[in-house]
Amino acid sequence: MVGVDGSPGSAAALRWAVDEGARRHLPVTAALVWDAVGEPRAVFDTAGVADRAGLAQAARRVLADTVAAVRVPDPAVTVTERVEEGSPVPELLRIATGARLVVVGERGPGALHRLVAGSVCQGVVHHAPLPVVVVRGGADRSSAAAGAADTAAAAATSVDERPVVVGVDGSAGSLRALRWAVQAAAVRKTALRAVHAWYLDVPAYLGIYTDFGSALAEQAQHTLDDAVNTIIAEQGGRLPVQVVKETVADSAARALLRAAADAQVLVVGSRGHGGFAELLLGSVSHQCVAHAPCPVAVIR
């Protein structure tokens, strides 16, 4: 299920959702939720008359125009349009009941929007009981390429070799993220890059840093190895994708954002330990969703 509001971010989210539906052989529901107090803005700008009937008609038109502008790579992928009146976050989550995934667009390029914790995007990420993917309009190279590729020949020759990146810390949440990331890499026929970030803030006494840093680095490697080996065992001793393991002596947000610079998707768990603690409610989640140049999947 993908939320649409007429913004460039939601158009990019719909393109991503349609492509993902083609990869996974799943139908797509494109949903637009409007209310009588001004959301989304595209509906009010389109409405000839700002009464309930006029807004409902404008909402249907905004959604239909957005869907019509998206190229469907596989004719077998169906896109169902759904328009509802109400509060966006609870209505979108209600529509998503039974869905495998929720996709929303991050439309704010400025610092002010990124600080608004009550946005629809952040609300869905915080409250959805299922995986959520946040897509930024115009930021991801694969989305831009998909929008520009209008012919089947162009689509056939387009190969995205960038990996899927997943943050791992050994917690139950990060193991769920790792499982999801393996599937995401498999359907894209690309590698998986598993990143474990550890950080020791010792501004002085280099010897102490060296001793503790070495121990933490070793522990980090064991944690990452154990997590990957757990998923390998679950898969019968072999994964369908190549896994590149990486431990990074940095904060979780910096490590993940740096890795996301060359990723198709960044995958994070909803909760973790250390740098990933309280991911949904903390700064790491906010920074990944607001700043990552690729789509971010938050997995519960």
From TrEMBL:
Recorded hits in CDD domains, A to Z, give: USP-like
Q: Which residues form the UspA domain?
A: 1-136, 162-300
InterPro entries xrefs: Rossmann-like_a/b/a_fold, Universal_stress_UspA, UspA
Pfam families in the cross-refs: Usp
Q: What highest taxon heads this organism's lineage?
A: Bacteria
Q: Show which residues constitute the signal peptide.
A: none
| Family listed | Belongs to the universal stress protein A family.
The name under which this protein is listed is Stress-inducible protein putative adenine nucleotide-binding domain
| Source organism (scientific name) | Frankia alni (strain DSM 45986 / CECT 9034 / ACN14a)
